[in-house]
Amino acid sequence: MIEITDEILNRYIDGELTSSELEEFKEKLRNSEDAMKRLNALMLVHNELKKYPLKEPSLEFTSQLMKKIMRKPEQKGQKYFIFSISSFIILICVLIVSYIASYIVSGTPASENNDTLGIFISYLQKFVHSISSVFSKGNVSIIGIIFSFVIFITAYFFFDSNRRTRTRLDKL
Amino acid sequence: MRDLTDKEIIESVRKGNHSDFKILVDRYKNKAFSLLCSMLRDKMDAEEVLQDAFIKAFYGLKNFKFEAKFSTWFYRIVYNSALSRLAVKKRKIEKEMISADEDLNIADEFNAGSAEGKNLSEFIKGLIDMLPENYASVLTMFYLEGMTCEEIGEVTNRSVSNVKILLYRSRNALKDKILKQNYTVELL
Q1: Are residues B183 and A42, on separate chains, in Cβ contact within 8 Å?
Q2: What does the pLDDT average to over B10-14?
Q3: Which of A9, A30, A106, A163 is spaced 20 to 30 A from B157 at the CA atom?
């Protein structure tokens, strides 16, 4: 036996009742004024919702969006450039650190491993020594090249941001 | 050009004809905007989120595999962007996005709704604007976008039965309000 609940009314509106349910539903509906009233109200809601108007964004929406989209690829290319440069710098740093570490480890005598503090102090001394050796003699030129490179990159971004600011100001 | 299918437009955009994306924008902007307005209830916010959603869709096109319809995929971006915006606005989203299985008396949301001096359409519009976001979004997708419950389920990450429950409850709440205001006189 089918009972005319709100769910059944909704299923009827959406055409989801089976043929046997539908027959029973119609039969019950004929004998129930209350159910008919509820169905009418629900149909009213359903029909009004179907007529509900679409809202529209501002008139310039599409043009503004397309401008943004067309501008983005340039920024994306710039991101790749930044990523590759920063990866290169990180790689150089890692190489320097590993060179220093290998230098310290290879120079540590096995007998010094007994006292923890002693080991730490000797590591520290060796670290300072290796740092000073990195900045001496022929290594200075390598460090110089790296610093020049970093300065060059920084200058590039500085001038690029200046250029973009100027372009933005020109637009205003 | 306007008669191109979504798939054809997407393929053209992928080939580098970025300006063709405009056709998709024009095709979906009003519907998506309506959905966002029903969820965010602020036109400025809705427009901003819509722009972000289109930009996300544009850059996501290269990964779109046509496993679902473009519209379903795009509305999922729109819906999720709206949820993120709501979260940013520190609204009590968890409370309002509760599972449809939980008991919820949405009639409480309509206490402010009065029929005085309004025709039926205006009255119903007012009531829809007062629905909680999850109910309003389901109603908008079902009626304005013409989506099926299955598609709405895909967009909102809900089961079909949950979507139906939300849909039925929204309609029932509106129906109860209409019955209370004696609008049924026009019908009987």
Answers
A1: no
A2: 91
A3: A9
CA separation (Å) from A58 to A54, A64, A65, B18, B62? 13, 10, 11, 22, 28
- pLDDT higher than 90, residue B103: no
**B75 touches B33 (CB < 8 A):** no
A128 CA to chain B: closest CA distance, Å? 49
Q: B54 and A37: CB-CB below 8 Å?
A: no
H/E run at residue A38: helix A33-51
Is A54 in CB contact (< 8 Å) with chain B?
A: yes
Give the residue extent of every domain in chain A.
6-51, 73-171
Q: Is A61 on the interface with B (CB under 8 A)?
A: yes
Amino acid identity, position A58 = S
Residue A172 per-residue DSSP state: -
Which tokens hold the place of B101?
């299985």
The distance of A18 to chain B (nearest Cα, Å) reads 17
Give residue for tokens 């500085």: A158
What is the rounded distance in angstroms from the CA atom of residue B23 to the CA atom of residue B158?
30
Q: Give the closest residue to A126 by CA, choosing from A109, A144, A146.
A: A109
Per the prediction, chain B carries an average pLDDT of 82
Contact of A71 with chain B, judged by CB distance below 8 Å, is answered with no
Q: Which CATH number fits domain B96-187: 3.20.20.110, 1.10.10.10, 3.100.10.10, 1.20.81.30?
A: 1.10.10.10
Tokens 């901003």 sit on residue = B48
Q: What DSSP letter does each residue of B123-161 carry, written as one string? A: HHHHHHHHS-HHHHHHHIIIIIS---HHHHHHHHT--HH
d(CA B55, CA A74): 14
**Complex prediction ipTM:** 0.75
